[in-house]
Design goal:
Blueprint: E1 3-10, H1 17-27, E2 34-41, H2 48-58, E3 62-67, H3 73-83, E4 88-91, H4 103-111, E5 116-121, H5 128-144, E6 153-160, H6 161-168, H7 177-184, E7 188-193, H8 207-219, H9 224-254, H10 261-294, E8 301-304
Parallel strand pairs: 1-2, 1-4, 2-3, 5-7
Antiparallel strand pairs: 3-8, 4-6, 5-6
The protein binds uridine-5'-diphosphate and magnesium ion.
Residues 9-11, 13, 42, 70, 72-73, 76, 93-95, 97, 203-205 line the site of uridine-5'-diphosphate.
Length: 305
C-alpha cells in the first residue's frame, strides 16, 4: 500500500489544529493509502505544540516537527518536505481555508499518473482592494518572470515523490515556493475550489509581509529588474547628453540663459530618485547573494516526533 504524507505548517493555530485534524481524518477514510500527518510547528507561541504532542500520542500516524522560533512558512514547508516519507505529499494550511475534502480527488489524479495536482481557488468573499492588488501583481510578475504564476494558485497541492525530490534538489536559501513549484514542471493537473473564509484564528499576513513576499516573487526568479536598470540608465544618460549638447549650442548662439532653476532641480530630483531605485534593486540581489553564501540552515528543530 502506498503512503500519503500530509504536511501542515502551523503558526499559532491553537484554535484550529484539532478541528483540522478531526475533519481531515474523516476525509482520509476515502483515500486508499496509508496516511502520515506531518505537522510543522513554526515556533508558535500559543498552545499549538502541546496540542500536537497530544495528537501524536493518541494517533501514531501523527508526527510533528517544532522549530526553535518562527522561521516563516517557506521554512516550515521545506522541513515538512524533508521529513515526509510518503510516495506522495499534500501540502495544506492548518486553518481549513484549504478544504481537506479535495484530497481524495487529488489522490485519484495522482493514481492516474499526475505528478502535481494543484488546487486553485477563486477569490469570492475577499476584500475588493486585496483582489485588485493581487490582480495587478500577477500581471506584473508574469511579465517579469520566466515561470508562470497563476492567480489563486497557492501552496495547496499534491506532489508525487518524483516531483518532491526534484523540488528538494533546489537548494537555494531564498525559497519562493510558488515559483519553485512552477519551475520544476512535471505532469500537472489543476482542480478548482471555492474560496474559504478563515473562521478561527487570524491570518499571519500583514500588508507589509505581503509586500515583501511580492517582492520575493519578482526578484527570486530572474535578473530582469537589473536589465531594466541598465537600459533605463543608458536611456537617461543619452537623454542627458543630448540635453547638454542642445544647451551648449543654445549658449553659443544666444548667450547665457538665466531661468534654469526648474530644469536643474527637476534633473537632480529625477536622477536622484532613479539612482536610488536602481541602487536598491542591485542591493536586493547582493543581499540575496549574501544570504546564499552564508549557507545557514533554513530552520532549527527544537523537538520532533
Ligand atoms: N504559517 C506558518 N508560518 C508563518 C505564517 C503562517 O507556518 O510564519 C502557516 C499558518 O499556520 C497556516 C498557513 O501557513 O497554516 C497559511 O497562513 P495564513 O492562513 O496566515 O495565510 P493566508 O491564508 O492568509 O494566506
Ligand atoms: Mg489562511
Amino acid at each position: 500500500m502506498k503512503t500519503l504524507s500530509i504536511i501542515i505548517p502551523c503558526y499559532n493555530e491553537e484554535a484550529t489544529v484539532q478541528k483540522f485534524y478531526d475533519e481531515t481524518k474523516e476525509w482520509m477514510k476515502k483515500v486508499p493509502a496509508q496516511i502520515e500527518y506531518v505537522f510543522v510547528d513554526d515556533g508558535s507561541r500559543d498552545q499549538t505544540l502541546p496540542i500536537l504532542r497530544e495528537l501524536a500520542e493518541l494517533d501514531q500516524d501523527v508526527h510533528y516537527i517544532s522549530f526553535s522560533r518562527n522561521f516563516g512558512k517557506e521554512a516550515a514547508i521545506l522541513a515538512g518536505f524533508q521529513y515526509a516519507k510518503g510516495d506522495a505529499v499534500v501540502l495544506i494550511d492548518a486553518d481549513l481555508q484549504h478544504p481537506p475534502s479535495l484530497i481524495p480527488t487529488m489522490w485519484n489524479h495522482y493514481e492516474n499518473g499526475y505528478d502535481q495536482v494543484i488546487a486553485k481557488r477563486n477569490r469570492t468573499g475577499e476584500k475588493f482592494v486585496r483582489k485588485r492588488l493581487t490582480n495587478v501583481y500577477y500581471k506584473l510578475v508574469n511579465r517579469l518572470v520566466e515561470v508562470e504564476i497563476t492567480d489563486g494558485v497557492g501552496d495547496f497541492r499534491l506532489l508525487s515523490r518524483q516531483a518532491l525530490d526534484a523540488l528538494l534538489s533546489l537548494t537555494e536559501y531564498n525559497r519562493f515556493s510558488k515559483g519553485l513549484f512552477s519551475w520544476i514542471g512535471f505532469h500537472e493537473k489543476m482542480i478548482e475550489f471555492e474560496n474559504q473564509i478563515r473562521t478561527e484564528g487570524t491570518s499571519k499576513w500583514s500588508f507589509a509581509s505581503l509586500l515583501n513576499y511580492g517582492m520575493d516573487g519578482i526578484l527570486s526568479f530572474n535578473n530582469k529588474p537589473l536589465r531594466i536598470a541598465i537600459y533605463s540608465g543608458i536611456g537617461i544618460t543619452l537623454f542627458g547628453f543630448i540635453y547638454i549638447l542642445f544647451t551648449l549650442v543654445n549658449y553659443f548662439l544666444h548667450g547665457v540663459e538665466t531661468p534654469g532653476y526648474f530644469t536643474t532641480i527637476s534633473a537632480i530630483i529625477l536622477l536622484g530618485g532613479i539612482q536610488l531605485l536602481f541602487l536598491g534593486i542591485i542591493g536586493e540581489y547582493i543581499g540575496r547573494i549574501y544570504f546564499e553564501t552564508k549557507r545557514r540552515p533554513q530552520y532549527l528543530v527544537k523537538e520532533k516526533n
